[in-house]
Amino acid sequence: MAKPPIGHILILVDGTDSSYNAADAAIELARSLGAKLTAMAVVDTDTLRQLLSVKILVDAEMGEFERELQESSRRQLAEVCRRALDRKVFAEEVLLTGNTETIVPREVAERGVDLIALGGFQSSKVTRDLLARQRQQIIDRARCPVLVVK
């Protein structure tokens, strides 16, 4: 039997409204296709280190800020998984730390992801908004289709 064209969907969760909209769309798509669903959040520790290097954060703040980001990401992932279960879809929950631009392509390849779902953004913000820049990098580097939802 041939592999379905979309057998595994990865939702990138970041807590924005557009991220939750993308999650809702991906959950419905996974339900209708019978696809596997993974909800993933990445705490971008490389960005935190950059903030430390330019003295926006100090060492004492860095660890606390990273813990707060991880806790926030856990809550966001739990919300997406709850939304999926409400629609009778199981979503694997994955929380990673590191460089988003490196982690996402690696995870897509290792997990056999066929479609990435992420929240939309304004292209005019890509140069000055970290989240928009990260989303654009994911789109640019993706080796599978990307569903962008506003």
Concise account of the structure shown:
With 150 residues, the protein is an alpha/beta fold. The protein is 52% helix and 21% strand. It has a five-stranded parallel sheet, sandwiched between helices.
Overview of the structural elements:
The chain is an alpha/beta fold and 150 residues long. It has a single domain, classed as Rossmann fold (3-Layer(aba) Sandwich), CATH 3.40.50.620. The protein is 52% helix and 21% strand. It is built from 5 helices and 5 strands, in the order E-H-E-H-H-E-H-E-H-E. A 5-stranded parallel beta sheet has the order 3-2-1-4-5, with helices on both faces. The chain is globular, with a radius of gyration of 16 Å.
The CATH superfamily bears the name: HUPs
Strand arrangement, major sheet: 3-2-1-4-5
- Report helical residue fraction: 40-55%
Q: How is the main sheet built? A: 5 strands, parallel
Label this structure with key terms.
150 residues; alpha/beta; Rossmann fold; five-stranded parallel β-sheet; 5 helices; 52% helix; globular
Describe the protein's topology:
Elements: E1 8-12, H1 17-33, E2 36-44, H2 45-53, H3 59-86, E3 91-98, H4 100-111, E4 115-119, H5 130-141, E5 146-149
Parallel strand pairs: 1-2, 1-4, 2-3, 4-5
Helix pairs in contact: 4-5
